[in-house]
Amino acid sequence: MSGIAGKGPLKAIRWIEHAAVVDVAGDIDLNTSPEFQQGLLRVLDRRPGKLVVNLAGVMYMDSSGVASLVKMLSRARRTGAAMCLASMTDRVRDIFEITRLDRVFDIYPTEQEALASA
Amino acid sequence: MNLAPGSPIRMTVLSTPAHLPVVRAAVEKVCELAGVDEQAIGGVVLSVDEAMTNIIRHAYDGHDDQPIEIELSVTDSALRIRLRDFGRSVDPAEIRSRELDDVRPGGLGVHIMQECMDSVSYEPAEGGGTRLTLTKRIAAQEELRP
Fold first, then answer.
1. A97 interfacial to chain B (CB closer than 8 Å)
2. Cβ within 8 Å of residue A33, ≥6 positions away
């Protein structure tokens, strides 16, 4: 998947059957969220049945990053893809709880649980 | 080592998103030295980040070469953070958080600041622009000593 993963916040994209698992790392803020969003868009353009965003490597996210994920969730729903977030650090989870978006996203403690979800 | 009350730290950064990580690191360190509760530090850092993001986007319309003045000061009971921009003034009465049930990107910064800080206030700055003051209560210095 050259051209999507490696540079910027998206470090790797793995395909597991019909699911695309995206490994994200670094800080997601106003500086990096455009690249983050573009990378996820390009993965969704490949029409996965499920998109799992693995956030284990993300130590910090602000509302710019959250906004990118809200846009991707909307896009995924339009294309019929399921979208899950997995392996959030406590600090990243905090912003989802503060903004109550933890009720909107399907969030799983591990990537395996996200992949196993319906 | 604790940060002594009455010795504010001042810095001026440009309105570029590239400076956000630098400011976050500085605010986190000041929080540690000021004795902000460890569980609350992330929220303070996030609030300053959101404030700067709003300045870059709204006061300066995305221009990345404008000044943002930041002052961090400690009293016996609070950490006070002031951010001053020289951009388009916004009527403080018009600044409010949006309904969270309306799930859409954007507009969350003010809500985040109000949730994470003890007070958030905007005022027009002399000479143009806006001054935002954020405060977070901290334990009295005496209480920090064993």
1. no
2. A64, A65, A67, A68
